[in-house]
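Fold it.
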Amino acid sequence: MAISPWRCICGAQHSLSKDRGAPAPSPPLGPTFPLDAGRRSKYSGQSVRAMPMRLLTVGKKRSQGTQLLVEEYKEKLGYYCDFEDTLIRSNPKLTSDVKVQVEAEDTAIMQQLKPEDFVVVLDENGKDVISEQIADLIGDAGNTGSLRLTFCIGGPYGLGVQVRERADATIRLSSLVLNHQVALIVLMEQLYRAWTIIKGQKYHH
């Protein structure tokens, strides 16, 4: 069976430790994307189905600055597709057990997902992508027959097993460790940029 280029066959599971001194995870196996800065999206200038998008993030109440940026990019993305932003409260069981916390957050995310969703998770073991490949991902998802494109960003300890196994695509936006609020803004900016690439439009800051 062919492996989807968007899937990540990971050599190590997500660490449940916030200790930055912990050993780095094994690099992902399987095909990797050439990070060619001059690469064009295969959907640039083409008609792409404007699937509704949903962003699921796990975390505490966002800072005012973060929420203002989220609203700005929601408005920009609204020109291209319906966009929904859902914040799931981290550590819903108020436990000090990291494993229990991740499992509870995992269950909360799964309850938000539907069978017809095309699910993309952000994971440290995911595929490195450039903006043009985000555009490709949007176009590819639109060709699958899925009804909604859903992105998932985990909490401080990452995503659980159920969500990662449910994923249709696994990506990472940077090799750096990003705070989940920073990752949220970076992702939304890249989704907006991807749509300008697809439409062949000038990017407006």
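The radius of gyration is 17 Å.
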